[in-house]
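job 3f2a | input accepted
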Amino acid sequence: MSDLTNKPAAPALKRNAIGVPGIVFFVVAAAAPLAAALGGSPIAFAAVGAGAPGAYLIAGVILILFAVGYGSMSRFVTSSAGFAAYLEQGLGRTVGFAGAAVALVSYNGMLMGLYGLFGYFCSAVIGDLTGTQTDWRLWTAGAWAGVAILGYLEVNLSARVLGVLMIGEVFILSVFDAAVFVQGGAAGINLDSFQPSNIATDGLGVALLFAAASFVGFEATAIYGEEAKDPARTVPRATYVAVVLIAVFYSVSTWAISLASGTDKIQQAATENPSGFIFSLNSEYVGQWSTLAMNLLLLTSTFAVLVAFHNTLSRYNFALGRSGVLPRVLGSAHPRWQSPHVASVTVTALTLVVVGTFMLAGADPFAELYAWLVGVGTLGVLVMQATTSIAVVVFFLRKRRNEFRPWSSAVAPILSALGLVAAVYLAVANWDILAGATSGIPVLLPWLIVLSALVGAAGALATRRSGTSIGNSFEDNKAEVPPISGVVAPY
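job 3f2a | predicted structure (491 res):
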């Protein structure tokens, strides 16, 4: 008994720090509604025309199905290691380690690529507003410093910042949506965007791919489980609320864009002016003042994504460091802020090295830094989501048979797995469109996902005798903190 009493407590993040609204802020901020609407939807419209909103709705349904199984399993597995913990519990240690490696590559790619997007947007928007061209690298460096500070401090501060930024971008798009519906669009309100004949066209694959990519980031519902109030209830609720909100918001906003332009003209408008036609529509239906606000909120939206992904990646590193998968120093929690400060500083430093290398090489911030790295990140997250759906089914069959429910434990996860596997196929088949790469090293980037999975699996095999698990360190502090992978919650 004395040995147990004298054991040092596992490093802990701040308990009961955030509720459903705070987690939803992180998730929706990572989805970047405004940036996705302005950056991703033009490609979907160019590919499939008026049926683009239908593609967003299909992607939303697939991910709502995923959320059913994911939320069900989250009642028993609470971990800052996110998907990796779910994979370990459902499919075993080797798959869990492989998933952890894929997660690190994916979220690093997303975060680093988004710094390029932020710099690109800032340079373009500020240039349009002032007539003065500024170097994108200056804006990226400023964002890097701001994200570093927020990531180091307690999670509540980031949640508040993201909440304010998210409300702003959702509000400005909602104003546009309302204006279009009130004014009746270009030719009246219709449901052409949801007609099967308009959705099932040759470009549906590309539209579905970019629609699915717009949802990336809602894994954060589980990642913040250790810091959540009553995680057994908070995490599932936050997952459902976030995914449904994102699905509805994207579908309605893209529908409004289609109506504003005219369902018979939207494909041409998106093809001819992908970067500006939504701004033009907003000026027409709402006013120039709103377009100015939309431009500025586009910048804050992108910054919010950076904060969200930095926090996600920091907690991945924290969980893997705490369990010994990565150097244990990464698993240190700040004595005052109770944040994963060492992991956060490590992410900040690695980001500086990689993004700094692109800067020194004179890379294009959008066509190279953003497109290549976010392409890899999107592919990796889709792979993890598909595999996690399978892990949910196996988990309930092997470890929680008494909790098995046909719909949430099997049917919904299997349907989501089929949809997500299709999304992975589309990502690989349309890699040249997703990453803007047709030759050279960039076309080989998808192999990074395969390579990282193999490295992770090899790490699991190399350490099999040590018994290292993605979440085994929580056993030491079980009475005080929510359990994670390796310790199944007694709910």
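job 3f2a | The mean pLDDT is 85.
job 3f2a | closed
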